[in-house]
Write a structure and sequence with these properties.
DNA Primase, Chain A, 3 domains, five-stranded antiparallel beta sheet, alpha+beta, DNA primase DNAg catalytic core, N-terminal domain, 338 residues
Length: 338
């Protein structure tokens, strides 16, 4: 977020004290924050100051809230992503609000807690990544524009150490979950957020770029397993010159375990299952067909027993082209494929 951090806090009515590159707030402003501890005043919640590499990132040590500057605005003002973007347009020319004296607290029961990424992940241009992580990412076909488009990072410490990190952002622009793929040969290929991290289990990798609900009936979605497979499908769609959106499952059993995923996919006019070419993938495809029986759909037939991430891009593009009709005048693009 390029908005002036200090001015944003002032307009929100939040007082702060600057110490180094951190702006320490008097109290955490989240409405879901439990009762404040007076001993933590000016030392519990901070926002990274402007002019720094991590400007606008914020965190509360007590309630584990945190994220980017626009997410703070969304939480404090109760706005969706579009509303927050409209609000930011007036940051530099609107007078600040009066300082907040107190924050209304609401019970945590029934309220979705703010999801934050585990510490230790690094984000930025692919060219600046750690060499081991970068070489693995490039060997799997990830390109610089995909790293930028999806906010992909990597981690060398903490719970996600030795993993490529794919943040999962929902259709309202809220960080909801993550998929972390090992690049050091870990026994578990993918990690997702645990229950204690309070993820939104219905959110899918890809939905941040889905069209509005009213327009999905004319669109196609390709459902996949594994973040690397999703990135391969996106590149193959561009190669094939086909228009479609992508939706990632956190494993082949997620259609059955999270009915809300099926509800979100049901809004699309057409779906293609690109789940892995194995028994689990076939089961997931059958579950999709059962859940979306009122929607036109089909199974992607892979040219071999390899999944999307391991299928040569020309072969994957050809398989997708057979499932998706060509649109006159449309050609796949590197950026903004949907």
């Amino acid at each position: 977020m390029s908005a002036n951090v200090e001015h944003t806090l002032a307009r929100l009515g939040l007082e702060y004290e600057r110490k180094g590159d951190r702006l320490w707030l008097e109290w955490c402003p989240l409405p879901t924050h439990p009762n404040h501890n007076p001993a933590h005043r000016w030392s519990n919640c901070f926002v990274r100051a402007g002019g720094t590499e991590k400007a606008g990132l914020w965190a509360c040590f007590s309630c584990a809230g945190g994220g980017r500057l626009h997410e703070l605005v969304m939480q404090v003002l109760g706005l969706d992503f579009r509303g927050a973007m409209e609000w930011f347009r007036g940051v530099d020319d609107a007078p600040p609000r009066a300082p907040v004296v107190s924050v209304r607290h609401v019970p945590l029961s029934g309220v979705r807690r703010v999801f934050t990424m585990p510490e230790g992940a690094e984000y930025g241009p692919l060219a600046r990544w750690n060499s081991v992580a970068r070489e693995y990412a490039e060997s799997r076909g990830l390109s610089a524009w995909q790293v930028e488009r999806w906010g992909i990072g990597y981690s060398l410490m903490g719970r996600l150490a030795g993993r490529i990190v794919f943040p999962i952002v929902d259709s309202c622009g809220r960080l909801a979950n993550y998929a972390a793929r090992t690049f050091v040969g870990g026994e578990v290929r993918y990690l997702a957020a645990s229950e204690r991290e309070h993820p939104d289990l219905a959110a899918m990798l890809g939905e941040r770029y889905w069209p509005p609900v009213a327009e999905r009936g004319r669109a196609t979605v390709v459902v996949f397993e594994g973040a690397l497979s999703g990135m391969a499908i996106e590149r193959a769609l561009a190669r094939a010159g086909r228009r479609a959106h992508i939706a990632g499952l956190q494993g082949s059993a997620e259609v059955d375990r999270s009915p809300r995923r099926a509800e979100r996919l049901a809004g699309f006019g057409r779906w293609v299952s690109a789940c892995d070419p194995d028994a689990a993938g076939e089961k997931a495809s059958f579950a999709l067909a059962s859940a979306l029986r009122r929607t036109d759909g089909m199974r992607l037939r892979y040219p071999s027993e390899r999944d999307a991430a391991d299928t040569p891009i020309d072969e994957l593009a050809a398989a997708l082209a057979e499932c998706l009709p060509a649109e006159p005048g449309f050609r796949g693009k590197e950026r903004g494929i949907g």
